[in-house]
Design a protein that fits this description.
The chain is α/β, with parallel strands linked by helices. It has 19 helices and 15 strands. The protein has a domain of about 230 residues: P-loop containing nucleotide triphosphate hydrolases (Rossmann fold), CATH 3.40.50.300. The protein is about 55% helix and about 20% strand. The strands form three sheets. The protein has a six-stranded antiparallel β-sheet with strand order 2-1-4-5-6-7. A hairpin with a 2-residue loop joins β1 and β2. The longest helix has about 45 residues.
Length: about 575
Amino acid sequence: MLLELSISDFALIDSLSISLSGGLNILTGETGAGKSIIIDAVNIVLGERAEKDIIRTGADRAVIETLFDCTGIEGVTELLSQMEIDPEDDGRLYLSREIKSGRSISRINGRAVPLSCIKEISKLLIDIHGQHQHQSLLDTRNHLEILDQFGGHDILEQRKKVEQLYRELDRCRRLLESMTRDEMERQRNIDLLTYQTQEIEQAGIRIGEDEELGRVKQIMANAEKIYQALALSYQILYGGDSQPVTVIDGLDQIISLVGPLTKIDPSLEEFYNSVDSSCMLLKEVSRDIRNYIDRIEFDKEELERVEERLDLLNRLKRKYGNTIEEILEYRDEKAAELDRLVNSEQEMKGLADRIERLEAELKKECDLLSSLRENACRLLEDNILHRIRKLGMEKADFKVKKDKADSFTARGTDDVEFLFSANPGEPLKPLSKIISGGEMSRIMLAIKTSLAHTDKIRTLIFDEIDAGISGRTAQVVAQQLAEVSRKHQVICVTHLPQIASMADRHYLIKKDENNGHTFTTLEMLDTNARVEEMARLLGGAKVTGVTYEHAREMLDMSDSFKKHLD
């Protein structure tokens, strides 16, 4: 809902602010007072083209600002998220546009954005009907939406089924396309993955093997040095013919010499025991050295085999991972990928079969949706015709044209367009070909009245809706505006008292002069001022007591009608 509109230095407007409410907001004023200027300003802030000559004479820029309450309006939060704009916590949305010579700046919640962003989000907020182009009816893509909303629950539920099936069909089609896009590339990947996994598999590597082989290589490469050192150590400990006294021989001799002395001097027992223990320990060490020496082999071929194995492991590390664990993980990952590619042909066949089943199911559900829409077309035509003829277009014709689309879409297989003819003998034409703003406004009013309970756009602006009508037709238009305003915020520019009398808020637009400059001003009318303005609308230049009485009577009748609606 549009809460506030502020305009500065725009055309004849110096500075103007208006607070709006729900229900029916009526704008009246003398011809030339600037009623259409306000609608022009709204159109421009919502994305219409702005000419530099709309800047008020003497000013360097024009500024238009709007404040909307978007609470509960579907799609606004998602769209703001796509634009990377933070929504306000209270659900309010600020749209503004600043026009300078040669350029303009649009803002959403204070952030500068391209004009296209303003246009996109304003489609969710407001519909303007009249001589301007900010109208959902002129976009044929909206006609199917209007028909489905009018059709109600059955159509909307069936459409959900169609949309879900279409999304799944589209997903399967894109997946199949990606799988079949480049068969040569698929085969190249199979060959590469086969080579990589086989190379790792054939190597037969195991975790820890590289560390173990490294130790073995270190020992084998230094076998001769180890042998010489250990042989000399053994000789020193246990000796041989070339060394008459070895360490162990010497210790045995000490034991035999000191042993008898312990009986003479018991204090020598500690020394004796230490020597005896050392001798026994060195004998064990010498045996271990002897056994180790016996195991040492100078096998050059075995060393070469170990080195070749280590070279293989290092090559695999350079290609597939820094450790054996990483190499094995790489193998498992690529084996799974290879399996998917090898089996993709079967998967592609399964996808093709699923697509065929989905297409058959989608066709069935689309046919059912189309049948439901066929009934809704006739009902909508009758409803709209009834209403537009009551609105003063007795000879008009309206048709909902439904054709079969070229292919499946998320909305089914129907193309819908609204056609209209104002007079007998004239061919039915698309709404975009209608020149009269008044006709367009009344058609939109008829549609909005029919869709009052389901239409998602909260704010409607009607300009020129009273063009070419009076009397009974004007009264019907007023009543339908009041009816629509019970579910929507309606802003209407009018010069007809029948329409003005239905206002929930009535604003008077005036043109004043000051120091040779002309200004447009706006005032919200109280009860007495409303009677004055209604009398002016009824009586024109000459207002009498009877006119005032008629004005009061018309306001009383309108209040009674609105109470009946509530």
